[in-house]
């Protein structure tokens, strides 16, 4: 008979033990044992699914907050660029032109990073959707069998 126990690390340890056949014993028949193991596996699957679901939701929330921050930063940089352009029109001094070029370079880099972050977010959203569909199909398959 297989006996399943948890060791000190929480891992399942399977050992084989000898059993004495006793006609008066109240042990579970093989079908009941299999159902109990399946129930245990289902519980483990649900726990893993729940944990992964909460981690993914937390990640999605943080990614969404990052996107919002990037959009706000992009808007602020755009506004400041317009103000700088206005200043340049009013006073085109070489000193201002030098700093304007630096600020314009920073603006381009931030815009590029913002585009990259949006692309990454779209990819993560696609992966999340694919995982969600896979989990739903897997649940349907286990429920039907």
Give a nutshell description of this structure:
The chain is mainly alpha-helical.
List keywords for this structure.
disordered N terminus, Biogenesis of lysosome-related organelles complex 1 subunit 7, mainly alpha, 7% strand, coiled coil, 2 helices, Snapin/Pallidin/Snn1, 2 strands, two-stranded antiparallel sheet, 145 residues, Snapin
Please describe what this structure looks like:
One of its GO terms (biological process) is lysosome organization. It comes from Dipteronia sinensis. It holds the Pfam family Snapin_Pallidin. Keywords: Coiled coil. The chain has about 140 residues and is mainly alpha-helical. The chain has a domain at about 55-145. The protein is built from two helices and two strands. A two-stranded antiparallel ribbon has the order 1-2. Helix 1 (about 30-90) runs antiparallel to helix 2 (about 95-145). It is rod-shaped, with a radius of gyration of 30 Å.
Helix content: over 70%
What is the arithmetic mean of pLDDT? Answer: 76
Please report the distance between the alpha carbons of the first and last residues: 26 Å
Q: What structural class do helix, strand and pairing data support?
A: mainly alpha
> How many strands?
2
Shape: rod-shaped
Total of DSSP H or I helical runs spanning 4+ residues = 2
What amount of the residues lies in strands?
A: 5-15%
Pfam families: Snapin_Pallidin
Protein name: Biogenesis of lysosome-related organelles complex 1 subunit 7
Keywords: Coiled coil
GO cellular component, one term: BLOC-1 complex
